[in-house]
Amino acid sequence: QVQLVESGGGLVQAGGSLRLSCGASESMNLMGWYRQTPGKQRELVAGMTEAGNTNYAGFVKGRFTISRDNAKNTVYLQMSSLKPEDTAVYYCWGVKLRAYWGQGTQVTVSS
To answer: 70's torsion region: left (phi>0), alpha (psi -120 to 50) or beta?
Structure first.
């Protein structure tokens, strides 16, 4: 059973920073982050291949940075210049033959 475990969410003031981490129980071809707010569909934030290719949603470019430690099967999301509209549950996502999801971690940005 593949497991993805996130950590690092919390409450931060607008303009602040947070770092999310997600460890997988085995290696993943793709890893990344989605987010979801009540009443909205889950949306991609950023993704990264094992080779290091990245993809970012337009709304986070220049503010968020995704990185991976393949030896630890871990993906990180460094979030800076946070805005209240970044408030959401952030889900870790991994792909190896199929998609796997973490349980989600709440990020709340106060104005």
So the answer is: alpha
